[in-house]
Amino acid sequence: MIERRRFPLARLTSGLPPARGLLPLILGLALWQAFGPRQSPYAPPPSAWWDSVRTMLHNGKLMPALGSTLVSFALAIVIAALVGGALGLLIGRSRTARRALGPLLEFCRGLQPPVIVPVAVLLLGYAESLKLLVVAWVAIWPILLNTASAASLLDELMLDIARTFRLDRITTLRKIIVPAVVPDFLLGLRVAVPLGIIITLLVEMLTSLPGIGSLIVISQRQFRSADVYGLLVVVGLMGFLINSLFAMAEQLLLRRWPPRAPSTR
Amino acid sequence: MPAPRAFSNEVGAGSREGAAAEQKPKAFRRFCETVKSFRPNLSGTLTILAVAALWEAAVRSGAIAFDYLPAPSAVFVAWVQLLLSGEMLVQTAHTLRAVLIGWVVASAIGIGLGLVLGFSALGRRYLLASLEVLRPLPAVAFLPLALLLFNFSLTTELVLIIYASIWPALINTMGGVMSVRARLYDVARTLRLSRAHTLIKVIMPAAAPAIVVGCRLSLGLTLVMAIIAEMLANPHGLGYAVVSELQAMQPQRMFAYVFFIGLLAIALNGALIGLSRRFLRGHAAARHD
Question: What is d(CA A18, CA A20) in angstroms, rounded to the nearest whole number?
């Protein structure tokens, strides 16, 4: 019990591979910097990437784009988590709902993320809400399906306990079902978060709505290759930060749950 | 907890199948299984039909304010026209070709690297972190880069597809190899198998289910990336068709393509599940020791 309360930083980083593994990447970049052509139109050296990112920071291009992307992404994930979690609980706990909605949901999930974008453009026009809707639509499925499957596979013994204690439906939901479902819900969210980042970028690329995605495409169309490489690094860092923040939050939250058998991804 | 349960199920299913095999001819047995497993989901079908009917009614009566929402019947008519004119077949052929080439190459690279990394702790120590830096980079962000380097071409499409689809195959193969039970290594040592033989005869069969799962995930990703690439970087195929119908303001044709792509994804996934069931009989049990 006391053991559980301590939460050393080491445990957060324990899942990471050893840092020595970064050597090939660093070596590659160093060689690129040392031997790559200075003024290459296609493969500018890493120092040029840095310069161009700094320029974009100074002329006020980078921050608004980054902000716009992050806000859309965060809002969409929140919507997807709320709607997906609620629908997942409903579908998982009700056999009738599962039978009735199953094929429709399966079909909706089967619609490929990139083709949702033109459909949304057609119906909504190039509006800011389009970004939100498309990202939420794509991010909702892993959350919904994970929650639903966890809720439907709930141990019957747990429900018997609820019945023994004569808990009403709300209390059963709050005390038995939701806690049992949370780890799988978070697992779904863990799939949805990187997917959400990708789709946010994709929507921006396809619709030229303001954001990092459209900034990269514009740089590419103007053949500013150093900008493209620099933005790629920025996007990578953004994804890394979001994912690791989420992983930490998940670990913190799941401290109070019993450990799960490690699943193979 | 789930692992042993799955294991006992496998055993149960296997022995029942074995008992049935003694009694009836194979084809008949398979037919019986198909009939038994086919449960018409009436309420589910009704829901889909109801949604379609509602949509149709809403569009016809003008109850929906969207200007460009075609009725399902119009979408269906457009789909039949596209099929008959052969236009859809041409685009599908292009996309499928890119998907298959990309998938085979990506799977080969992914499985190869995954085997190396799963098998060798040294490889993991000195390479894994670099890969973990590259892996979360959203593959779509590489599209402008690929476009810069290879222009509007099939190469751009394939580069993007392959880059994105390597990861699931790699990660799953590595995970599969690393979760091979130590006991199996002991068996290999007892039989004095060489490293190569251990890999081929022990590790790969034991990791096969994980590898297949990885390749299946890769295939799904391949189609998505092909469509993305066709929308932005290679004006051919289904992805391009969707975008060009949008720009030509032909919503019913666009919806026909959208739904068709969805069906194609389901069909591809289903085909691969069928294939892996056929080739991996009994393997699920082996994996759980």
Answer: 5
